[in-house]
Structure to design on (304 residues):
């Protein structure tokens, strides 16, 4: 009886595999894969182009004219001339969060709190960092990579689910053949299924980790580009320090009397973060700025 059940399970597994193969192989697997990736890229481009307008309509922002903030527009003009990027429209937000960011390809948003917190040179450092993202097309590239990874994971999932069904049926039949429990942790195929489920979880988590790592790389690259185009290379580091201090919660009397140890993010938190630790960015920007100053000093000596 158990042998017949095992043969039934194996036959069913073969039938499932042949059915999936017939569906997929009417056209070649390569054609399906290429067409799906191309479609995901097109959808990613369209999504990136429309995302800026959608987000602007939902945020408490207003366009900041040149007459209202001539110094900000002067800084933006100066950076625009030095960088290979179209001049974005400047918007002012009122979220009381000291931040600046770009939306789409033509919108630069700065929060009103930054105007009170930073000096003009530091604001220009923030502008340079954000324009570097536009110059490198970071937002578009991140959207395209995310779209492709999502599609690839979906295709793999379509292949994994039938395989999981096959493994389950095979383990069920083998358990009956060996007179072992059909369900529970003591079945023949339990370990195989558990390993398979873990591999599937890794398959879902890996794209997220890759995207977060790429986003952190983009932040470092934008910092480097900002230092290259700024008159004051240290301005970005000073701006990051001011923003970091502004985001720290105020110390209470309890915190002063009983200070806690600084808790650094663990590996998982660092892996899931979209931005590198601010302390590391500050150290790196300062090192880049010092190198830029040394190079400028050497060039002046050579000229003399």
């Amino acid at each position: 009886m158990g042998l017949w059940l095992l043969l039934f399970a194996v036959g069913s597994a073969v039938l499932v595999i042949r059915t999936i193969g017939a569906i997929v192989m009417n056209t070649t697997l390569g054609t399906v894969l290429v067409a799906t990736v191309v479609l995901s890229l097109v959808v990613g481009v369209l999504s990136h182009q429309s995302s800026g307008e959608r987000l602007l309509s939902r945020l408490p922002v207003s366009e900041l004219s040149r007459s209202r903030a001539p110094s900000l527009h002067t800084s933006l003009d100066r950076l625009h001339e030095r960088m290979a990027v179209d001049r974005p429209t400047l918007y002012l937000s009122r979220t009381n969060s000291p931040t600046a960011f770009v939306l789409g390809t033509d919108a630069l948003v700065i929060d009103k709190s930054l105007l009170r917190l930073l000096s003009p040179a530091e604001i220009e450092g923030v502008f340079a960092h954000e324009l570097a993202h536009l110059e490198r097309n970071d937002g578009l590239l991140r959207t395209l990579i995310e779209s492709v990874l999502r599609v690839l994971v979906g295709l793999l999932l379509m292949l994994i689910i039938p395989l999981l069904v096959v493994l389950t049926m095979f383990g069920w039949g083998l358990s009956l053949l060996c007179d072992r429990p059909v369900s529970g942790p003591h079945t023949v195929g339990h370990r195989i299924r558990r390993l398979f489920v873990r591999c599937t979880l890794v398959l879902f988590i890996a794209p997220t980790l890759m995207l977060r790592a790429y986003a952190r790389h983009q932040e470092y690259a934008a910092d480097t580009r900002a230092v290259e185009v700024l008159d004051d290379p240290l301005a970005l580091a000073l701006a990051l320090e001011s923003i970091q201090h502004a985001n720290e919660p105020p110390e209470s009397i309890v915190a002063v009397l009983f200070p806690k140890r600084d808790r650094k993010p663990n590996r998982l938190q660092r892996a899931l973060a979209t931005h590198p630790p601010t302390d590391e960015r500050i150290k790196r920007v300062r090192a880049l700025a010092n190198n830029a100053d040394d190079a400028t000093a050497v060039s002046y000596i050579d000229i003399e």
Q: What stands out?
A: The radius of gyration is 28 Å. The first strand starts at residue 61 and ends at 63.
